[in-house]
Amino acid sequence: MKGALGFIGVFLSFLCAGGANSYSCMDYYSICQEFFGAPTMVCLHNLLQNLCIPKFNEAMTSMKSTNWCTWGNVSNYYSNLSHCTEEISDCLMIPWPNPLVEQTFVDIHSRFFKECPSEELSDPPPVIVMALVITPICLIPLMVSLVVLKTKNGDGSS
Known about the structure:
2 domains, mainly alpha, DNA polymerase, domain 1
């Protein structure tokens, strides 16, 4: 089986030279049929590893790693990868997303985006928290006092 996987890589690399637009669902399906007997997750894995991921890796490594964390720099490559995985999955009639595609994106995130800062919500400084807590506590007795005064002196019915 290992020899067959190597041949698939060479075969797919040859096909890849024709450009992404030369592919059709029948091409993907016939590759899976010929080498795996049917569209399977193993076939999907090989297609992703030989068609989608190398293009993304090449695009990412062509830019400086300091630019990886800027969405505007990588969004096109990321979208192309997502589209590629979806197209192949759909052609093979394998639901998308699926665990293999999800793992592919996890691997890509751990390789290229693990050093990117994430915007996390943090607590405000203690002074702000204290002011936000104390203000309503202090307003309650004041409001009660106003209600009592209004009912005593207001309309004289009490």
